[in-house]
Amino acid sequence: MAEWHRIVVKVGTSTIVDLEGQINYPVINRLAQTLATLRQGGHEVLLVTSGAIGVALSQMDLDQRPKEIPRQQALAAIGQGYLMSIYHQSFAFYKQIVGQVLLTYDVFDNPGMLANTTNAIETMFSEGVIPIINENDVIAVDELDHQHSFGDNDYLAALVAKEIKADGLIVLSDVDALYTANPNIDENAQPLHQVAEITDTIRLSATGSTSGLGTGGMSTKLRAADLTMQNGSRMALINGNDPANILAVIAGQKIGTLFEGQS
Ligand SMILES: Nc1ncnc2c1ncn2[C@@H]1O[C@H](COP(=O)(O)OP(=O)(O)O)[C@@H](O)[C@H]1O
Ligand SMILES: N[C@@H](CCC(=O)OP(=O)(O)O)C(=O)O
């Protein structure tokens, strides 16, 4: 397997916002520092970020995600700008320019729009910019109504990684690894450090989010891992509480869960 040169990192709401619903500025800052270090060391780095709604809940002093789609979309509109301003400031401290890309799933079915998107991303790479992607929640309801599991940032990140031929995808979440069962519910759950195939047993072990803020839980991460492995690439799942762990993954250390097919 090639070195991790072109890397997609996906960060979930559960990392951007803490258990009390507060924006996790120190973690966002360390994430910016880590990604800027990688980029300035010669890697090509792209960030897929969730958290627009999570950030807006904090801004609007709400303690839970509303059920109504228009209210969720309004929160996404409020939070996305703020989320980007936090990233802008955090990356600027490390002298790193970022660019915002908002995508919907139909982009991947439209060759013209897809080419425009990848051309813009390639240009940002060649100019040393880190693209930051989120789903365009205001016009895409698939992620927010919880009805369609395809509309989530885990799978979006896997699709982006596939299109830009990334060497690997690193998913940051609020768990240390994939476990044999949800570790927040089952105290006997055991971590799985290496997965070569998403079997039915593994699929059954994955349930939804228990944080109350993340949407996909482990099921969407497994779909992302499946697509990534089918594509001959690899995905690492690690805890986002210390974004410097990204460097450990790239150095080949056994950390979190590595989803990698047998070659
Ligand atoms: N088998 C499993 N192993 C690990 N976590 C699991 C598993 N099944 C369900 N989960 C849940 O998935 C959550 C992570 O998903 P989510 O909250 O959507 O995070 P994010 O916001 O990072 O995408 C964990 O906190 C845990 O509650
Ligand atoms: N696009 C949404 C992400 C939805 C969400 O919570 O996703 P995740 O935390 O990755 O399970 C947002 O920015 O709020």
UniProtKB/TrEMBL annotation:
Keywords: Amino-acid biosynthesis, ATP-binding, Cytoplasm, Kinase, Nucleotide-binding, Proline biosynthesis, Transferase. It is an enzyme of class 2 (transferase). Its EC number is 2.7.2.11. One of its GO terms (cellular component) is cytosol. Pathway: Amino-acid biosynthesis; L-proline biosynthesis; L-glutamate 5-semialdehyde from L-glutamate: step 1/2. GO terms for molecular function: ATP binding; glutamate 5-kinase activity. It catalyses: L-glutamate + ATP = L-glutamyl 5-phosphate + ADP. The keyword Magnesium does not apply. ATP binds at K10, S173, D174, T215, G216, G217, M218, S219, T220, K221. It comes from the Bacteria. Substrate binds at S50, D137, N153. This is Glutamate 5-kinase. It comes from Fructobacillus ficulneus. The lineage of its organism: Bacteria, Bacillati, Bacillota, Bacilli, Lactobacillales.
